[in-house]
Design brief:
- A hairpin with a 4-residue loop joins β5 and β6.
- The chain is elongated, with a radius of gyration of 31 Å.
- It has two domains: 60 residues, no CATH class; 145 residues, Rieske [2Fe-2S] iron-sulphur domain (Rieske Iron-sulfur Protein), CATH 2.102.10.
- With 224 residues, it is an alpha+beta fold.
- Strands 1, 2, 3, 4, 9, 10 and 11 form a seven-stranded antiparallel beta sheet that branches. The chain has a four-stranded antiparallel beta sheet with strand order 5-6-7-8, with no helix packed on it.
- The chain contains three helices and eleven strands; from the N terminus they run ααβββββββββββα.
- The chain starts with a helix and ends in an 11-residue tail after the last helix.
- The longest helix has 33 residues.
- FE2/S2 (inorganic) cluster binds next to loops.
């Protein structure tokens, strides 16, 4: 035991016995200069890269702006067919931010999902849930048809055939009591039970485990 103590002490002393050093110095000057140079280099690199990284990443966390958009009076919509409405889903980029929403009045005999203040009118997105091509409503067949790969949706926007992985996305709707207009709000996705989810990309199924495999994006607009 005493021997081991002596060995430890002598090693400690030898570590600090630096040739040419002043008493009390515990690190060589060469090592100190190296450390200083490396530190200065790291600070310089961080000064260049961190702001660029911030600019690159910040948009991912920025929530998309949205606003309620008037699309007509309640009398403009009925339960038997869809009205085609142009709405803006990406503000600030002009007509490039426009898209088509298919809108009809809710029909309690077929729209079984729970009624609330946001679904008195059914507003379907025209974006196919396979790869995102625009679908077209064919009133004679009461179907939405996608021209790209033959996707077919029924009158409620449920998948009736082809490769789409989930029903058509929807938009929140409401009646603006002060103006009397029906308004369209942010988009949301639905599963095959028509439960609402934060918007997902086309090709992302959200039934069962799919809702965890394809989580919502950071930049999606919040619920109204
Ligand atoms: S994009 Fe619509 S079926 Fe492929």
């Amino acid at each position: 035991m005493p021997n081991r103590h002596r060995q430890t002490k002598s090693k400690y002393t030898a570590d600090r016995n630096i040739p040419g050093s002043f008493e009390g110095e515990t690190i060589t000057r060469r090592r100190l200069i190296n450390l200083g140079a490396n530190g200065a280099g790291a600070v310089a690199v961080a000064a260049f890269t961190l702001p660029a990284l911030g600019f690159a990443i910040a948009p991912i966390f920025k929530r998309q702006a949205w606003e309620w958009q008037p699309i007509g009076h309640p009398a403009d919509f009925n339960q038997t067919t869809y009205a085609t409405k142009v709405i803006n889903i990406t503000p600030g980029i002009g007509e490039a931010g426009n898209t088509i929403a298919y809108v009809r009045a809710r029909d309690p005999s077929i729209d079984k999902e729970t009624e609330d203040q946001y679904n008195h009118w059914v507003a379907l997105s025209s974006r196919c849930m396979h790869l995102g091509c625009p679908v077209r409503y064919v009133s004679a067949a009461q179907r939405f048809i996608c021209p790209c790969h033959g996707g077919v949706y029924d009158f409620r926007g449920m998948v009736a055939g082809g490769p789409p992985v989930r029903p058509l996305d929807r938009f929140y709707t409401r009646l603006n009591q002060s103006t009397g207009f029906v308004e369209v709000g942010p988009r949301f996705s639905v599963n095959n039970e028509l439960q609402r989810f934060s918007p997902r990309f086309p090709g992302e199924p959200i039934d069962g485990i799919g809702q965890y495999l394809y989580p919502a994006q950071f930049d999606t607009a919040p619920k109204p």
